[in-house]
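Thread: "does anyone have the structure for this chain?"

Original post by V.I.:
We have the sequence but no experimental structure in hand. Need at least a predicted one for the grant figures.
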Amino acid sequence: MPSPVIRTLRELRTPPAAFALLVLIAGCVFSPKLPSGQLTCGAGGVCPGNQICSAQGRCCDPTDERAQCSRLIGADAGAPETSPSIDVDQPVALPTARRFVEGQAWLVGGQDGCTNAVPPASFERWCAFTRKQELWVVNATRGARGMIKCDGSDPDCLLMTSTLALGYEGIYEYTRPRFHGDMLLYYADPLHAPTRGEPFRGGVHAWMPGWVKPRKLTGPEGLRCYAHSETSVPVAFCSDRDPADGHLIVHAGLVGPEGGLPRLDRLEATFYGTLPPNGTRFFYSFGVGARPGPLMMAPVADIADRTKHVQLSPSVSWFSTSVEGSSLFALEPVGEGSGTLFSVDVSTGNRRGNLATGVQRADIMWDGFGKDVGVVAYENATSTVGDAKLILDIAEPAKAVALGRVGSVLVSPDRRYSYITKTFDLSRGEHDAIVVDNATSKTTCELQTEPRSLTPFHAFTPDSRFALWSDRITGGIFHEGWIAALPSCQKRRFSGNSSLYYPVPGGLLFVDEVGEAPRLLFESLEEGTAERIGPPRLVGYDVDRFAVLEPDARTVVFDVWVDDVLGLYIAELP
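Reply from O.Q.:
Generated one for you, tokens below.
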């Protein structure tokens, strides 16, 4: 399957099945407040909202019509009405969580709702939120120290637009505002109402930390823009309509001080391109997939000078840069349905030696946290599985790990393990989950032998000592969350009804559904065991979306429903 661009929502790092899940779980969750009595009081009797700490050590609402607070305080205090799905004592409130933006604020996404390039373009992290048709960016680093006013008077909160394109994301998901690394791309001033079969036409804009205002990348009939998922420099490429004759054109390169991009060419055929995060070179082709075309490379600084464009291959059916951007991988067709996989050194622009032959598709491997960990070449591939060879070191492709006939692969940060799938329930899009040792190709842990799991966004923790997976999928997006210590394979269910989890150094963030109330929880992890260390800490309740601020991953930004209005909160993790 061709990879036309560095895709949105950090899709480059995610197998297609996982991306489909991620889009679902990033959706809205409308739910009531956490019922009284379901939360253990925090340090000093801290409780959320208007709840108070009872004599039994639980937070309760004194205005509750059912007098739960009085019942909890009394001698006959019992268990909460809704049994928790985490199978442990009630969570303890995290006292650092607090609101930092005045007024309504809806985080635009998950991890791509905030700047996330590693290393960052700025030492400050910014997040984007919406208020109806308004789009704002707010300095979350500054927000960790105090309240921020988003009324146009504070330089730490900037209005991007009051005419954001709404309603398109359900049809054309790419129109949702999001950060590509440290560059925010958003769509505004649409020329028509959202209509299936008619893509967005309007203005596409960009913003990065340090800019006092956004910059427009296209004309009034812009179609779509792209940037690398880890970019920290102002480079992008877009498709647009020529105002003179209405013909489609491609712009690419450095964003000008007043906006705009250098013109590359008229769009005479299907166009594919990719920009590495350092923004030095642009790789493109006017044909891939069933109609392969030449792979070209252009220096971004002189992209308008066609004499400096170099052909790297006469024909490619697929290509993409790695997450860190040091390598470009491409598949050169040889014969019917297969080809030769090769790589390009992005820093020099030189083509390296071939990595594998007889390849029908390839997947770039990343560790889940912004680092490259190789590439997988599939031979004898069908629509679901293939004979997988994991190339951990592209300098030594002969040492590739034979993983057998598998459907997908995810590699641990230390490259010791691979998470693989072998059997599938195609009607439900679910599969098994197995961890193998890359040194021996032998199974380390059978996480789930039946096809009832979904490909995770993160299969391993940052230290590679734990594997994570979903199980017993119910209701489309809800599932049991499980963790296994490696290499012992000791397993534990950490949530019986979760929709999302995100591992951070030394711990795990996850959304747990209690009845209809989604809670964002944090639990610590201890090396060598999957057992829980004390009760989890409640970060927030009625949480809709959250983003962990990288690279330290010790701060989380999230939005919460309070009195039917979304507010933006921030918390420091233990």
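V.I.: this helps a lot. Residues 1-46, 62-84 have pLDDT under 50 and may be disordered.
O.Q.: and The two ends are 42 Å apart (CA to CA).
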